[in-house]
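JOB MANIFEST
job_type = single_chain_structure
chain_count = 1
residues = 203
[input]
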Amino acid sequence: MLLFNGKNLDGWTSVGKDVPPAFGWEIEDGVMTVRKHDGKRGGDIITREQYSDFDLKVDFRITKGANSGIKYFFTKYEKGGWLGLEYQIMDDENHPDGKLGRDGNRLEGGLYDMFPTSAKQVNPIGEWNQARIVAKGSKVTHYLNGKKILTFDRSSQLYKETWQLSKYKNCQPMFGDVEKGHILLQDHGDVVSFKNIKIRKLK
């Protein structure tokens, strides 16, 4: 099922609102691009629908030094506000976050501030890459350009211990311990493009 029709933001909205941002997201030739306008950002966009078990694919293209992300199971927590697990999208070499975090857990393809990836093949800046996220039950797998780069279990002891080391340690319930949530595309203030955004619900 297409989440982006290539023409407009139908099916998308803003965090805590009923409409998408009035500016910041531009659409041309089937490509959605987030950029600043006069130094101002439009903000993140989220799907109107929520998803539990799913197979999500997103083509993305970054610019030099860019940072963005795809969040999933994005919802409002009892304590901590709006949060979601994040498939990191970033220029590892030129963005400052590439040198932060624990053992590379803020690099492209990883679960942001939680788990780093295994070896990965990233296409050069300005070329398209494909992110894929498969969530089934408590297990989640990240792919980059067709290769599995990370698998984790949200119910495992390792996950719980990692959560306690992360920036989300004070949220309630436990970060990621939700049944469903929205898909979010992040506006981090950098120019990033997306296309071919597709999801398949898993039974």
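[summary]
The radius of gyration is 16 Å.
Helices lie at 157-165.
exit_status = 0
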